[in-house]
């Protein structure tokens, strides 16, 4: 399966309120045979914009989901993106996986909120991260800080996930996450991970880049530095070694 992720500069306020800018990118990637595209955390309405989180948050039936669904359907590829979700009087840091037919295949509310801003803006997600099938692959979802906790990735692996999609907003100074923790999560669970970050300044916050696509052996298939980038890779199937490795680990944990 060919996948892509976008490492982006933070969007302007206007762009962060309207996902239309995704359409030409999605079309170009689909023309290259990409089946899944991943963009960073809270791309709608922007990460470091706490005043916008509550004011602009939308329900799953809202305009953002409809717009991204239309883009995915028109381009012919799946899109995973982070956004501010409203449910009643609560707001969540959420991510959704929209299939190439425009339908929502997976939805997740971030459990591990990072820092004062996130904790003031959002409620903690309570549901187990989802695993769902898409074009013959089992896919799981996490958001940013979640991937730093081994338990979350392991829960997904136990449910049969082969690919983890992880929209993120990792600040500068936390390079150990993409350098060490993401590859470790991939290797210890025999899963591929798509980790899509921002780069550059967003108000008083600077993002560290370092987005990457990691194979089930923990080795990077594609990685970004300190500039905007589009990463594309063909995900390998789990090797017999990886399957046996994971099976042995899970058996030892059960025993």
From TrEMBL:
Domain of life of the native organism: Bacteria
GO-annotated molecular function: hydrolase activity
SUPFAM superfamilies: Carbon-nitrogen hydrolase
Keyword Acyltransferase in annotation: no
InterPro entries hit by this protein: Aliph_Amidase/BUP, C-N_Hydrolase, C-N_Hydrolase_sf, RamA-like, UPF0012_CS
Gene3D superfamilies referenced in this protein's UniProt entry, alphabetically: Carbon-nitrogen hydrolase
Keywords in alphabetical order: Hydrolase
PROSITE patterns: CN_HYDROLASE, UPF0012
Domain CN hydrolase, first and last residues per copy: 1-237
Pfam families attached to this UniProt entry: CN_hydrolase
Similarity annotation: Belongs to the carbon-nitrogen hydrolase superfamily. NIT1/NIT2 family.
Descriptive protein name: Carbon-nitrogen hydrolase family protein
Species of provenance: Paracoccus fistulariae
Lineage: Bacteria, Pseudomonadati, Pseudomonadota, Alphaproteobacteria, Rhodobacterales
């Amino acid at each position: 399966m060919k996948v892509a992720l976008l490492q982006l500069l933070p969007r302007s306020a206007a762009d962060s309120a309207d996902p239309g800018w995704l359409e030409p990118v999605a079309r170009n990637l689909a023309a290259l045979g990409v089946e899944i595209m991943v963009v960073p955390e809270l791309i709608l309405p922007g990460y470091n914009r706490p005043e916008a989180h509550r004011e602009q948050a939308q329900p799953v039936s809202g305009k953002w989901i409809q717009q991204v669904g239309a883009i995915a359907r028109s381009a012919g590829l799946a899109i995973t993106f982070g956004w501010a979700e409203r449910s009643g009087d609560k707001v969540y840091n959420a991510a959704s996986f929209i299939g190439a037919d425009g339908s929502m295949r997976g939805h997740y509310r971030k459990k591990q909120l990072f820092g004062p801003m996130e904790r003031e803006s959002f409620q903690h997600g309570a549901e187990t991260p989802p695993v769902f099938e898409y074009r013959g692959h089992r896919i799981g979802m996490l958001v940013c800080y979640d991937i730093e906790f081994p338990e979350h990735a392991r829960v997904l692996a136990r449910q049969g996930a082969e690919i983890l999609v992880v929209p993120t907003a990792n600040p500068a100074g936390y390079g150990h996450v993409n350098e060490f923790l993401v590859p470790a999560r991939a290797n210890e669970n025999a899963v591929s991970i798509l980790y899509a970050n921002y780069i550059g300044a967003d108000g008083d916050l600077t993002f560290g880049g370092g987005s990457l696509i990691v194979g089930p052996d923990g080795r990077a298939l594609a990685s970004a530095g300190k500039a905007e980038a589009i990463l594309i890779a063909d995900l390998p199937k789990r090797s017999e070694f990886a399957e046996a490795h994971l099976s042995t680990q899970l058996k030892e944990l059960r025993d």
